[in-house]
Amino acid sequence: MFDPVIAPSGTLLGLLQRGRGDGTLHALTAPRAEALAALNHCVLHDPRHDWQVENRSLYYARLYLDLNGELDAVEAHLFDPEDVLDADESRTGLALAVLGHLASYGRLDALQLLRRYAAHGVNWAWALDELALRDDDAGLRALAAPVLARFPHDAEGEAELAAAVRDAFEPRPWRLWADDPRESIATRVRAAQETGCFDRWQRQMNSTGPRPGWSVRAVFEWAEQGVERGTPLHVPAARCLTAVAGPEDRPEIVEAARSGTEGARCTALRYLADGNDPDVLDLIEGAVATGSAPVVEAAVAAYERMRSLAAVDRARGWVHRPDALGAAAGRVLACRGAAQDRDLVLAALREAVRGEGPDAPTLWTLVDGAGRLGIACAAPVLRHVYRETASSHLRGRAARALAATDPSFAAGFAVECLWDCEETTREVAARRPPSRSGERTGVPGAVPSRGTGGRRTASGASRPRAPRRRLPASGITPRGTARHGRP
């Protein structure tokens, strides 16, 4: 899947793609046709860089409700011929999650679309997980026949059915079907459940991982086998070394960290860093200078896990390096540095934004560090990250940092945060007391002022508690989607 194309942050589409609170507020004041077009674009073309951790579905579903939006575009997208050609879950996952939330709010058209797609769509398992949380028993029982018809009555089909039952995120439909009064359905589902349980037991018995009595060399060989298969195993291998290595094995492990094969070197560096070995910092520096890309990545990751005073002190010297180790040193200071390191963290933050843009992965830690250390001078950079990043999680971190560093946060961004797509970001704003009574509202129909005065409703009554409606009420707390914790 290609990275989504994100519109500029000053446009309605750009605001909605990012899930910003201003997106909702501007959509409610824009012409309805324009707002619905932008909303449909977001739902049909998932704007998230990481759809497994970023929330959008509840945000978009509530906007459909506020705009009384039709679902014709979503229906056309789900049942487009491309659905047969593109089985990637990311093509339809967000649309199905939005339909799930709309069904929770009583939209029968959304519930019917989910039922149709579960019966006929390629990404039927996701739709079934949504229905497992929202549909009644009768609706789920009606789907038993079309779902089971997807699996042929042969050995391969039964194996696929067993895998689908075993890997289902929501087991409710399968449990209902196992007790179905139609014997042909109940018998087949119960057999698939039994096969899935046996498969789990068999995988545990046939494990090819470490065994009692393994030596240090055997652990290194196992890690190297992972490299050959393209499956890095140095992290579990380092944990194995903790169990099998003794003081007498240290010379062998240090030598592997200095000049071993790729798998052994990554494993040894991780093990020595976790144990705060006195030589590990020099070994990490050497690995970054002479190692392959996977070794450099493992060495940097091992260094960032270290919490010793020596690691923090070394970071103060490494932070000026223009390589991966210098970037890691900035993140170490952001996490574990002291007040004396504020200038270094601020410089690293500015350099990351200047060199890699507002979506750089390193910003997650640096933004947190700016807030932790209370770097007031970082507020302009944090505001830029807040406005421009396409990651709703990074924006939430920027909001937390701004709450700790920017005196104007309560009167400015906190207003918008109350309407954000991320629950944690809304909570940051809700916990931030306004500096003047009634300066924050969130009344639909008017974009809140970032200035001095509070908004009043059309009737003239002040409503300082109105934004609390955007926080999940008991019983409708957003759970992302049903499937794999997908938001």
Q: Beta-strand percentage?
A: under 5%
Q: What is the C-alpha radius of gyration, as a whole number of Å?
A: 27 Å
**Distance between the amino and carboxyl termini:** 18 Å
Low-confidence segments: 437-485
Largest sheet: none
Can you give the helix content as a percent range?
A: 55-70%
Order of helices and strands: HHHHHHHHHHHHHHHHHHHHHHHHHHHH
Mean pLDDT: 86
The class by helix and strand makeup works out as: mainly alpha
**Anisotropy-based shape:** flat
How many runs of DSSP E, i.e. beta strands? 0
Q: Count the helices. How many?
A: 28
Oligomer: single chain
Describe this structure in words.
The chain is mostly helical and 487 residues long. 62% of the residues lie in helices and 0% in strands. The chain contains 28 helices and no strands. It has helices at 12-18, 21-29, 32-44, 57-67, 72-78, 82-85, 89-104, 108-120, 124-134, 137-141, 144-148, 155-167, 172-178, 183-205, 216-229, 234-244, 250-259, 262-274, 280-290, 293-305, 309-318, 324-336, 342-356, 363-372, 379-388, 392-405, 413-417, 423-430. Helix 15 packs antiparallel against helix 16 (234-244), helix 16 packs across helix 18 and helix 22 crosses helix 23 (342-356). The radius of gyration is 27 Å and the shape is flat. It starts with 11 loop residues before the first helix and ends in a 57-residue tail after the last helix. Mean pLDDT is 86; it is low at 437-485.
